[in-house]
Amino acid sequence: MGTVAFDPGRVLGFIESMRLPEHGPGAYRYAAGTTEPTLYSSTYAAMARSLLGDLSCLPEADRRAWIGYLDRHQDADGLYRDPVIFGQGWYAGDPLWCGRSHLTCHVIVALTCLGGTATRPFGWLDPWRDPDRLCRWLAERDWGARVGWTGNEVMNVGTLLQYARDVHHDGQAGKAVEVLLDWLSTHHLDPASGVWGSLDLAGPKQRSHAVQAAYHGWPLFHYDRRPVPHAEQAVATVLATQNPSGGFGWGVHNPATPFLSSACEDIDSIDPLCRMQPLVPHRRAEVAATLGRAAAWVLTNQMPEGGFVFVRDRAFEYGHPQLRAETGAGAMFPTWFRLLSLALIGRALPDHPLASIPWHFVRCPGYQH
């Protein structure tokens, strides 16, 4: 396995360049072409800096002020709202797959990284606390052509239920988590492939779509240390998503040049391979080789200023103009997500050069445990 050259200092330098100190601790913009601080960007900064152990030197006053900055954006129902981005783009109608619940799943990890917790309970979860309503809601999701969107919805609800159970000591939320994981273990799950939905997996693009959907369900099992159903078949399906460039895109996010895969397409296969590798010891060498190629690919998405791009050679707007990066410009979302890919690989492969970096993970539902 070849040497992977990675300098954490370059990433931290990029993140620092996005900080807007005039707006107070915790305020960050998204990319060089944006001007306003956004709550998403603040969470990406906290999560990325935590991964690299950089928050340990943060003065306590700044830490508390950052936590306060995040908590000032919590609505009465417990979810967080970014006043800059909500009301425009993807977020206009607060959709379940990418609205306030999605943002809140990021905020709770950022708060955990900073040593804080969400102040208000998640009253927003009331419809999902009832087991019968939860099962009806799950049955009503689209497990066909839009299974990717369904995966996001399930992850957002499930992650916040787990947090409410563990941090807010919500017993009803805890029971709902059990119902949710039981339901996912027996419904719309293909035993032959280990993924959810009815997509035809014979073609690489639909296989990639299905794995991206499943990625959003698997962390719920991993966090609760519950066995992933049909893990061996799932690993085989995920392994089959690697493309000739070493990434995992097949055109879901980048139809014009599909092998220039997105940060999402990559981590959606990297994360399950890293976490499920111990479950398939007879394929460990194959998984390690796949992840080694993936690490080299991920690093080609780092720009000279130290940040990472969502997709190479194209601009990308994450649902709002203040979450936009031009072609060749690093941005906060892909910088955090691609850094997390590298961290997961470093943790999973003790003989890989990335393992020499002292990655720091946190015990919180969602992405970074």
Order of helices and strands: HHHHHHHHHHHHHEEH
Number of helices: 14
Number of strands: 2
- The level of helicity is 40-55%
Using the coordinates shown, work out and report the CATH topology: Glycosyltransferase
Low-confidence stretches: none
* Strand coverage percent: under 5%
Mean pLDDT: 96
Strand order of the largest sheet: 1-2
Task: Give a short overview.
The protein is an all-alpha fold and 369 residues long.
Give a structural overview:
This protein is mostly helical. It has one domain (8-356): Glycosyltransferase (Alpha/alpha barrel). It has helices at 8-17, 39-51, 60-71, 100-114, 126-129, 131-140, 147-166, 171-186, 204-215, 218-223, 231-239, 263-276, 284-299, 332-348, and strands at residues 316-317, 324-325. Strands 1-2 form a two-stranded antiparallel sheet. α2 runs parallel beside α14 and α12 (263-276) packs antiparallel against α13. The longest helix has 20 residues, at 147-166. The mean pLDDT is 96.
